[in-house]
Amino acid sequence: SMRTNRASMLKVKRMIDIIVSISVITISLPLMIIVSLLILIDDGWPVFLKQKRIGQNFKEFELLKFRSMKVNNIPVEQMGQVREDNLLVTRIGRIIRRFKIDELPQLINVLLGDMSLVGPRPTVPEQVKRYTDFEKLRLKMKPGITGWAQVNGNTQLSWDERIKLDVWYIEHWSLWLDFIIVIKTIKVVLFGERPVTKAIKEAKDFAVRFNWSGREHTHSA
Fold first, then answer.
1. pTM for the whole thing?
2. What sign for the dihedral angle of Cα 174, 180, 183, 186?
3. Strand 144-146 and strand 116-118: pairing?
4. In a 3-state reduction of DSSP, which class is residue 69?
5. What are the residue ranges of helices labelled H in the chain?
């Protein structure tokens, strides 16, 4: 049946996560050491940023990133989407953000099983408290380093569009879809982000079938 098939496919997904994260950590170790030193020289300690995030089935974990911003106490909530020209972003931070190198330490999260290579972006605890039933569907799978929303516009999309793309991904998930996302991620890293109208429309139409139209107004069932 579909369910047992999905379960065994998810086991394959986990195996791929382990093999790929170990391989990439090994290959990128020299780069990670250089980046760590550059962060230290440019802006001092700490090298890593640890953020509380909510993963699959509401499980809390610490997300690891290379620190690309000056040390600050601004809550992630207030910060919102940080663009590269933000004054808090350091010189090294600008470079590592542009090429997504700041995300590399998340391979450790993948190895630990908090995350997968592909999935919805990990959520901030404050947001989860306000999640609607539709938004909670994002937490049905492990969060990812990259995902369907990331390759279809990411920072150029509204929160609402990203949620819909994430839920579309979870409901249509397959190993093949993960493979497509990895290929598209390489394109995004090389050529930058741009909204993909077709995917956004598809996700919105799908959400409408879920009787969900967005934050603006909720339907009375």
1. 0.84
2. negative
3. parallel
4. strand
5. 2-43, 76-79, 91-98, 106-112, 125-129, 133-136, 159-171, 175-191, 197-209
